[in-house]
Amino acid sequence: QVQLAQSGGGSVQAGQSLRLNCVASGPVGDCMAWFREAPGKEREGIASVSRILDHTYYADASMKERTAISQDRAQNMIFLDIISLKPEDTAMYYCAARVGCYGTVGSPSTYTSWGPGTQVTVSS
Predict the structure, then answer these.
(1) Are 90 and 122 in contact, with CB atoms under 8 Å apart?
(2) What pLDDT is recorded for position 92?
(3) CB 1: neighbour CB atoms within 10 A?
(4) How far apart are CA 35 and CA 93, in angstroms?
(5) pLDDT (tens digit per residue) in 53-72
(6) Structure confidence at residue 19 (pLDDT)
(7) Distance between CA atoms of 70 and 58, rounded to whole angstroms?
(8) Sheet containing 18-25: which strands, arranged edge to edge?
(9) Pick from 17, 46, 102, 118: most CB atoms within 10 A?
C-alpha cells in the first residue's frame, strides 16, 4: 500500500519562498506530482517528476516560472520549491503518485495515491 506523507508549508509573506516535502513508502510507481486546490477552485496540477528518468514536467509556463519540482530518489522524496509567493498561491498543496508520467502532469483523476495535503497561506 502506497503512503505519502507531506511536510512544509505554512503562513508566509508575499515575495517569500518555501519548500514542500513529500516522502513515499510502498510500491509508489514511477511518477510523483504536486497539485494544489484553492478555496472554491478545482484541484490543479503543478508539476510531476519521473523518478526513474529524473525528467520533470510542468502543467504550464506560469507554473514553471516560479516552481521547481525535484526528487531525492534514494529517500523516496519529492520536493516543490516555490519562489516569489503571491496571495493567489494560497491553497492546499497535495503530492500524488501514479504508475507513469507519460510526459505530462495529467489530471487529478489519473493519480491513484494522495498525500493528506499541506496548507500554504500567503499574506500581502
Answers:
(1) yes
(2) 98
(3) 6
(4) 6
(5) 999 999 988 888 999 999 99
(6) 98
(7) 12
(8) 3-8, 18-25, 77-82, 67-72
(9) 46
